[in-house]
Amino acid sequence: MNPELEDLLKAYGAFKQASNGPEASLFYAIYEAKLADAARRTKTNRETLHNAVMRFHARWVRANLPPAFPTKLGEL
């Protein structure tokens, strides 16, 4: 995975996890700064890049979860 995209996904994930906490605004500011920097360097629209991060975040989280216990005995 592109390290810059992974960094954006991690920053967005930190904001999502702290969305109800007192440091949510700090994490959002960090994410926004990284997003603006990435958009400027890649000459991409900031909103388009943000939409891509939101779209891929759930998939990235699922890919990084530990393997689940099999729900069916046939899967053993």
Quickly list its features.
68% helix; 76 residues; mainly alpha; 3 helices; globular; single chain; 0% strand
What count of domains describes the coordinates?
Answer: 1
SSE order in H/E notation?
HHH
Give the overall form.
globular
Instruction: Kindly state the percentage of residues in helix.
Output: 55-70%
Cα gyration radius (Å): 16 Å
Count every beta strand, where a strand is a DSSP E run of 2 or more residues.
0
User: Tell me about the biggest sheet?
Assistant: none
Low-pLDDT segments, ≥5 res: none
SS field, number of helical segments? 3
| Cα end-to-end separation | 31 Å
The percent range for strand residues is under 5%
Mean pLDDT: 86
Structural classification: mainly alpha
Describe the structure.
The protein has 76 residues and is an all-alpha fold. The protein has one domain (3-63). The chain is 68% helix and 0% strand. The protein has 3 helices and no strands. The chain has helices at 3-17, 24-42, 46-63. The longest helix is centred in the middle third of the chain and has 19 residues, at 24-42.
Characterize this entry briefly.
By secondary structure, the chain is mostly helical. The chain contains three helices and no strands. It starts with a helix and ends in a 13-residue tail after the last helix.
Topology, please?
Elements: H1 3-17, H2 24-42, H3 46-63
Helix pairs in contact: 1-2, 1-3
